[in-house]
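Sync notes, pocket subgroup
Present: LS, DG
LS reminded everyone that the earlier model was apo-only. Rerun requested with S-adenosylmethionine included. Inputs:
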Amino acid sequence: MTAGFSVTAGAGAAGYDRVMDALAPPEATDAVLSGVVRPDDVVLDVGCGTGRATRAIAARARAVLALDLSTDMLERFAARGVPGNVELRAGDVTDPAVVEPRSVDLVTCLLGGLQYVQDLGTQARVVRNMRRWLRPGGRVAVEMFERSAYDALLGSHRLPLVLDGVHWWLRMDVSHDGQIYTSVSSVHRDGREDEAAGFTEVFRPTDVDEAFALMAGAGFESVAVQPDLANRGFLWVSAVTPENDRNDRNDRNDNDSHRGGRATPAPHEERNRA
Ligand SMILES: C[S@@+](CC[C@H](N)C(=O)[O-])C[C@H]1O[C@@H](n2cnc3c(N)ncnc32)[C@H](O)[C@@H]1O
């Protein structure tokens, strides 16, 4: 499988951080999280990256375990300062052993982190991992790239971007091969390509039905799929593990491919399985 997320040019993870702070400001992330994170929560933040969302989560939660595959991103996280209630962990979300079973109250995954895992069967395994890591009655809150939003972005775009009062350009090239989309972004000033940042994303966007089936297929209840709370072109997917969850199903299905039956909710309609 192609690496889902890679910093490809510019100032590395620091450049990514700077650009993303301009594109998806921390205040918007904090607004998204305000109704989600509870003061007593122990949270697992999957694909924490440089910690932009993790810091906002940590300010609202008891403790946060911040998981990411990329040591570059985690090093940048550490360089920017790690709040006292945050533990950084390098690891792959597809590996069930990377987090202790039943150890967290909430799993967050912001800005499409789940979809860098491009195979639907492996995504289903990741969602089963999330259920395994959650205590009974635990919650997930996942932002997923919406396919129609990326279909509207296919091709090359040049968008103005102001960084620290200076005008730059964000160049985005979006293409797809079937279900797998590639977005190559670079931030530059005229004639000085890739000076600030460059990153490539290879991911599998989703739609309402697929996102619902993914969560329901892993045994989550009260699955809701809604437009992104900050209107960033994502779907906001939330769900709860059963109160009497024994997680047997997760163990049985660990090596299975995706088995979730497709449900057919009306677009953006909240659905409850319970
Ligand atoms: C868009 S970036 C960071 C998003 C971050 N949550 C934020 O709000 O800025 C997505 C992150 O997912 C991480 N990632 C991709 N695949 C992963 C995997 N299989 N396991 C853990 N992290 C992964 C990447 O290394 C990257 O840091």
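DG: The longest strand covers residues 134-145.
LS: The two ends are 35 Å apart (CA to CA).
Action: DG to write up.
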